Amino acid sequence: MSTTTPASPLLDIRDLNVKLPQGAEREFAVEDVSYTLGRKEILCVVGESGSGKSITARAIMGLLPAPHVKVAKGTIEFNGEDLTRVRESRLRQIRGGEISMIFQEPMTALNPVMTIGNQIDEVIRFHTKTKKRHRYERAIELINSVHLPDPVHIIKAYPHELSGGQRQRAMIAMALAMEPKILIADEPTTALDVTTQAQILKLIKDLQKDHDTGVLFITHDFGVVADIAHRVAVMQNGKIVEIGTTEQVLNNPQHPYTQALMRAVPSLTPPVKRAISDKLELRVNKLTKTFKSGGSWFGLGAGSRVVHAADDVNITLHQGETLGIVGESGSGKSTLARCIVRLINADAGEIIYQNVDLRPLNRAEMRPYRSKIQMVFQDPFASLNPRSKVGRIIADGPRILGATKADADKRAREMLELVGLDERAFDRFPHEFSGGQRQRIGIARALALDPEILVADEPVSALDVSIQAQILQLLADIRERLQLSMIFITHDLRVAAQVCDRIAVMRQGKIVESEHTSTLFSNATHPYTIELLNAVPGRSLHPTKAIPQ
């Protein structure tokens, strides 16, 4: 029987300490943390990677990687029960039934060999004795409630058959299956484009109101905080350094760390337009790339699908210019980038560099141009060889192009210095670095070949705001120092506003609008561009006005 009164909080965390294993960077992942969560309240916990946000959430769910990481002190009271002291069997009842969690990456949290319907059914079957037909009806109802199209099809689909936004909605449907009292959302919108992000945030707010749910929302995006939170708790190095209402924390931050985080949020107001050279570096004419899937062995047939990832795309890039390519997931941004660097072959069109069309060149003919157009990938951990030391990763490119080992190693050390990494990084492996440091390594590898064009595919999308600001400043410095031209792909319009000289907006494989950044942000004309701008979280957020410089 519940001992909670209407005025008491759903969740009451007191003096929580979570101990890390011996030899870790610090003794406690979470230290003396206290906060409450009320009914119908959305509490946002913000901070950089390693601040203890997710560890606190996992402690609430009883999902700490014991015995190495464990609660050393403190209480987590839910409905009169201290979750640090209940048995594992009781925790299993609470998990998914009374407290549910939406994880940051649905593709790793969802079972890849089970259909979405079976995964929702498993939650209901574990917590109730409902008959199969009623469980199926409940699953359809849940899929409808998160606004997924064609529930009968979705219920039979596997996770890999859905887009990122659809997988996140499916996970939300699972989390809400038992109408939990508390919903923990751990960075649920980090890798989503702005329109999908806006839909997910609205969905969480609507569901929270409908079910009287308390929401613990973990994020590093202050735009999201401005749109969704009632209160905000700021964490640094395992401790809460500031807590208050959203208005208090965003408009009058008191702690230096909070102020630093706020200063790192990119503004939606573009800087003064830079003077750009008239010299044309790259010209893409009528570029086309089509993907086909399904059908029969002998061509297109029943169930076949044709996707025009790039559909008669025309762009130009001038010397020293940064051209932004923005749009939703699936708009064709990354396909266009991969065609330009010839990681995939376009079906038709021209890629003109130094008066040469690169598109029809074979591998041998393309080799002299490879070094001149280099790419920085979205996920540096996936794109760096985990078995190679950093020095070799950076030096491999020059060595392949004929440099001696001594010269290639020297170039690698110079590049590490250029991107702000210690020379000791040369002999370390990628897993020994943070996400921001790995992205610097990826940039160093691209620059080692002395390129004239850098293609950056979502290089800061998964980074904390302060690390993101450092990487963006690094790219700006390198652009000025080396007179690089850049194609910068992003779904974050705040980043695009600060980085790009011009922006091309892509939708369904087509460029629907292309303008100077300041003109686009002040006077967009295409309905899709206007929709993207309106979907940016925290549009009214102007943090630097309230922060001492």
Q: What's this entry about, in short?
A:
The protein has 549 residues and is α/β, with parallel strands linked by helices. Helix content is 36%, strand content 24%.
Main β-sheet description: 6 strands, mixed
CATH T-level topology of the largest domain: Rossmann fold
Q: State Rg.
A: 25 Å
Distance between the termini: 53 Å
CATH class of the largest domain: Alpha Beta
E-strand count: 20
Number of domains: 3
Choose one word for the global shape: globular
Poorly predicted parts: 1-6
The CATH architecture of the largest domain would be: 3-Layer(aba) Sandwich
What order do the strands of the largest sheet run in, or round the barrel if closed?
A: 6-7-8-3-9-10
Alpha-beta classification: alpha/beta
Arithmetic mean of pLDDT: 87
Please report which band the strand proportion falls in: under 5%, 5-15%, 15-25%, 25-35%, 35-45% or over 45%.
Answer: 15-25%
Helix content: 25-40%
Number of helices: 21
In CATH, what is the homologous superfamily of the largest domain?
P-loop containing nucleotide triphosphate hydrolases
Characterize the structure shown.
With 549 residues, the protein is of the alpha/beta class. The protein folds into three domains: 7-98 and 183-265, P-loop containing nucleotide triphosphate hydrolases (Rossmann fold); 105-177, no CATH class; 320-342 and 363-535, P-loop containing nucleotide triphosphate hydrolases (Rossmann fold). It contains 21 helices and 20 strands. The strands form four sheets. It has a six-stranded mixed β-sheet with strand order 6-7-8-3-9-10, sandwiched between helices. Strands 16-17-18-13-19-20 form a six-stranded mixed β-sheet, sandwiched between helices. Strand 17, helix 18 and strand 18 form a beta-alpha-beta unit. The model is unreliable at 1-6 (pLDDT under 50).
